[in-house]
């Protein structure tokens, strides 16, 4: 069984926690940073631009969440990088928006709130195949008695995750016409603060609204009894609730009517709508208590809109997409269940519980 690297922090002070992580996962972090410099270069960014964006992201982060900026500085010290370089990894969504990079892969998320029992969630995480070694699983204690476990990229402070306060998050990228090259707070830091601080969808949305952002994303927040997809863009923040049937689906286009007016993927990446239709057509499978069944309900290799993606090696690296992970949240246990790869490779034995 293939598994992702795991790390459990023993340090609780932000800079020391970051340095400990950076020291133990130095090779992973340095390799991930190098992978992003390659991606940005192929997409048309110069080294000077990337450094400038990293420095601005670090400044914005320090203003909005000083403790998280300290943690990034600690990761840099441990990994032998500069703080702005770790900020580049955390701000990769913002830098891709600044470059105006568009691709055809990306993630699909399903949350079902059943009439009884805990939420049933699953998402695919698609990204560039040359970054398939980027993911790690990280456990930390941001405050006494509160444990956060996150599936993230080496050097990034959070992505998909769950906390012992009973709240978890899924994560999908979006694009909006208001996205700008004037870098704001990285959306990955918003996910981290939600995991660290929020206990409800409302609290999570408040954290998102407090950040000045330059790029768009959707953070789907799940608790034992509630869920909401928090759509974030420079034009504003909106919360999409589950339907009357308890189902909440999201791919890579805005669902809020006002924000959808500025949608970028609608014309440039229309496959997101086909993936959303696939999820809608397979809700009965996504309702299942068994996570294997939920993952298999995601399975689609449809040309142009695969929910389970495999890279086309004839394409340049910025246009090669692969489903690198399939992930579900176990809220009662405060744990993630993670499969390395796409739904077509799932078996009961391939799940890594963290």
UniProtKB/TrEMBL annotation:
Transferase listed as a keyword? yes
Q: Does the keyword Cell inner membrane apply?
A: no
Q: Which keywords does this Swiss-Prot/TrEMBL entry list?
A: Acyltransferase, Transferase
One Pfam family of this chain: AAT
UniProt superkingdom: Bacteria
What InterPro entries would the database entry show?
A: C45_proenzyme-like (IPR047794), Peptidase_C45 (IPR047801), Peptidase_C45_hydrolase (IPR005079)
- Segment Disordered: which positions? 1-20
Q: Name one GO molecular function term.
A: acyltransferase activity
**Comp. bias (Polar residues):** 1-13
Q: Which residues form a coiled coil?
A: none
Residue intervals of the Peptidase C45 hydrolase domain: 122-341
Question: Sorted alphabetically, which PANTHER family does this protein's record hold?
Answer: BETA-ALANYL-DOPAMINE_CARCININE HYDROLASE, PEPTIDASE C45
Give the protein's recorded name. Answer: C45 family autoproteolytic acyltransferase/hydrolase
